Amino acid sequence: MSILTEKQKMLAGKAYQAGDAELSKERLKAREIVFEFNSLAPKFIKQRKELLKRLFGKTEKMFYVEPPFRCDYGYNIEIGDNFYANFNLVILDCAKVSIGNNVFIAPNVAIYTAGHPIHPHLRDQEYEWAQPITIGDSVWIGGNVVINAGVKIGSNVVIGSGSIVTKDIPDNVLAVGNPCKVIRQITDEDKDYYYKNYKLGE
């Protein structure tokens, strides 16, 4: 039986040591690209987009990420079409982060696939683990939201500002709080509210 590398363990969701030479080299490579991305003047939109295409595992035609941005590896991040992220997005992508189409992310959002052992004996040996995060289509994530490892957020969801998402969130709901919980379904009444109160379409 072949011995798994620390990277293979990480991607398989097994306990691994992040100080491994291969993983350290890959994080440094990502940091170099992220540093260049964050250092470009605001007018260099096309250049920033090209850097993210190099960094991310998958992109579509329409996406925009406001600097500053931070991530661990980059190649575990997959974003859908019409993706927008505001300032200070942090994605610790030790496992895959899959994001659907038409997703809007407010400032200071943190997406953490990584976790550490509760017991200090293992934590002191620099073991950690990672679980994938999935975000569906047409999702709005409010400011200062934290999404923890292993979470799946459905489509057509709104996550309220300041929420800590520790469990899966189903489709078509508004969810808020710490820990984040479903408050109610999103219905056509919500659409009608905006047409009525903001006179959309006039």
Descriptive notes:
This protein starts with 5 loop residues before the first helix and ends in a 5-residue tail after the last helix. By secondary structure, the protein is an alpha/beta fold. The chain has helices spanning 6-11, 21-39, 45-55, 120-123, 188-197; strands spanning 16-17, 63-65, 69-71, 77-79, 83-85, 89-92, 97-99, 104-105, 110-112, 114-115, 127-130, 133-135, 140-141, 146-147, 152-153, 158-159, 164-165, 173-176, 181-185. It is globular, with a radius of gyration of 18 Å. Strand 18 and strand 19 (181-185) form a beta hairpin. Helix 2 runs antiparallel to helix 3. The mean pLDDT is 95. The strands form four sheets. Strands 2-5-8-13-16-18-19 form a seven-stranded mixed β-sheet, with no helix packed on it. Strands 3-6-9-14-17 form a five-stranded parallel β-sheet. A four-stranded parallel β-sheet has the order 4-7-12-15, with no helix packed on it. The chain contains five helices and 19 strands. It has a single domain (6-197), classed as UDP N-Acetylglucosamine Acyltransferase, domain 1 (3 Solenoid), CATH 2.160.10.10. The longest helix has 19 residues, at 21-39. Residues 7-61 form the Maltose/galactoside acetyltransferase domain.
